[in-house]
Specification:
Blueprint lengths: L2 H7 L17 H18 L3
Length: 47
């Protein structure tokens, strides 16, 4: 079976939810911390 055929064969039922990777929950927060760190570095002149 190809991946597409498996995906089509395992369509979710009406009551089931799509499974989301757990790693996506903290990605926006980490991106915000990285941006905040760059802003602080720019304001303090650290480079």
């Amino acid at each position: 079976m190809t991946p597409l055929a498996e995906e089509a064969a395992s369509e979710p039922n009406e009551g089931s939810r799509r499974q989301v990777p757990g790693s996506t929950a903290f990605v926006p927060a980490v991106a915000g911390l990285i941006v905040a760190g760059e802003v602080v570095k720019d304001l303090t002149g650290i480079r």
